[in-house]
Design a protein that fits this description.
Layout (H helix, E strand, L loop, with lengths): L6 E6 L9 H10 L7 E6 L15 E8 L6 E5 L15 H12 L6 E7 L11 H19 L3 H15 L1
Parallel strand pairs: 1-2, 1-3, 3-5
Antiparallel strand pairs: 4-5
Amino acid sequence: MNKTLPILIFGYGNLSRGDDALGPLLLEMIQERIELDSVEILNDFQLQIEHALDLEDRNLVLFIDASVACNGAFDFRELEPAHDKSYTTHAMSPAAVLQVYQTIKHQTPPPCFLLSIQGEQFELGSDLSPKARKNLQRADQYAERLLKRPNVKIWRELAEKAFHHEE
């Protein structure tokens, strides 16, 4: 049986849907430059109920996805378990995955964070938009900073700063 690595980076999105590819593309960039001895990379089209099991025995989890709702090039925030409408659909939100973990494991999930990258076009067959390409570069620089200091306290401080920056 494989040993579970302490840090999980989980990018999701569809490479065939324009800016929806931002999550998987950032994963590729991260994978090229990090040591994979303590970090596991996971990529999928969308989050599903089974992904709750991927959180088991982790110290830190980073979800990466495209979003139309960012306040800038990207947003970074800590996640909390939550029932939402995605809970009953084929594609789930990260908060719903955390809720499933909490329900089936009867314990609080590990600290989980979401790096959302601003996208604008998600049509099937479209390319990455020029704006999304710039946002991807900025999110990559931010992710590099995060992964140089994979510490829950530091990530919480950064998420708090990002939250107050929005207001």
